[in-house]
Amino acid sequence: MIKNAKLVGSQIDPSSYHRRDPEVKRGNPAYIMSNSELTEFARNPHRWRAGYREGDMEDTEATAWGNLIDVLVLDPERYGDKFVVAPEVYPCEPTKKDSRTEKPWTWGANYCKEWRDEQGDKTIIKTSKLEDSDRAIKALATDSIISEVLECSKKQVMVTAEWHDKPTGLIVPLKILIDLVPDIKHELFGQFLGDLKTCRDASQRGFKMAIFQRGYHNQGALYLDVYEAATGENRTDFIFPIQENFDPFEPARRMLSTEYIQIGRDNYRLAIAKYCQCLATLNWPGYDDDADRQVNGFTLVEPDAYMLG
After folding, report:
1. Alpha carbons within 13 A on the beta-carbon side of 268
2. What is the mean pLDDT of residues 24-44?
3. Roughly what angle, to the nearest 10 degrees, separates helices 35-43 and 216-231?
4. Do 276 and 168 meet the contact criterion of CB atoms below 8 Å apart?
5. pLDDT per residue over 152-199, tens digit each?
6. Which residue, 25, 50, 113, 192, shows the most beta carbons closer than 10 Å to its own?
7. How confident is residue 61, by pLDDT bands cut at 50, 70 and 90?
8. d(CA 121, CA 166)
9. What pTM does this model have?
């Protein structure tokens, strides 16, 4: 059961949201769980407990692009704090063989390495990437419905809460960061919460698969429930303004069905219940520990119905 939910505020810097107490490790009941943590825990508790993070294996270029679009759309004032464009040339001393005073930028040059070190935690992007992002933002703005949702919404809204688990008596701290919270009085979107996504395939079939594979329906249900517990507002629907991450940066709009939200709600509650059992028993099962059928310790792999042709 969700209790003690509190609205922290809007325009929360994601780096602040993701920051953690280094002394509180996974496996400690005080560790704050988010949707992404719950999703990875549910896939393999043993792997999650050992330190696996989804981002470690993701396409770093696609992730960096998504972060750039998030900042430009949701919090453009922080762009300068988060990103910096690499120069196209760097200064050099002319020689007898080469009279140039500038050369094309390369990370092999000491000047360029020193410049990179001076940027600290900022993400370095190329001029071409900045030009691409300008086109992407313009393409997103051509969709009048997405533009209206963005215009009427508070952005990056953080909420904290606790899950009180009856079987174990444990209390699990939770936190969420909602990209889009439309004005509750908006005639069309007042019942929505939303999350901005960039993706490789914005088609209906493609994004439906992404929802299932990445647990976006679990995210939608958890966010709706925690936000309602904090505010008392009747938010019933979860939407995804989405955009492909390649030229011409085609936008699209998706909304979870009531059935999909209920599946997500069942999923996140099962994940929390299992998490509490792991905390209580100190047992963190891996892939084969939950297997239904084994032969001499090996999990039996059988064909699904569609494979039988």
Report:
1. 29
2. 96
3. 140
4. yes
5. 999 999 999 999 999 999 999 999 999 999 999 999 999 999 999 999
6. 192
7. confident
8. 42
9. 0.91
DSSP H/E element including 172 = strand 171-182
Strand 2-9, strand 153-164: pairing = antiparallel
- The pair of structure tokens assigned to 240 is 């995804």
Give one DSSP letter per residue of 212-263, joined into a string: HHHTHHHHHHHHHHHHHHHH-----EEEEEEEESSTT--EEEEE--HHHHHH
Record the tokens describing residue 132, joined without a space: 């691409």
Contact 75, 67 (CB under 8 A): no
Structure tokens given for 24: 């509180």
User: Residue 84 forms beta bridges with which residues?
Assistant: 124
Residue pair 194/238 in contact (Cβ under 8 Å)? The answer is yes
State whether residue 48 is helix, strand or coil: helix
DSSP state of 166: T
Beta bridge partners of 164: 171
Sign of the CA dihedral 63, 67, 69, 73? Answer: positive
* Residue pLDDT, tens place only, 112-161: 999 999 999 999 999 999 999 999 999 999 999 999 999 999 999 999 99
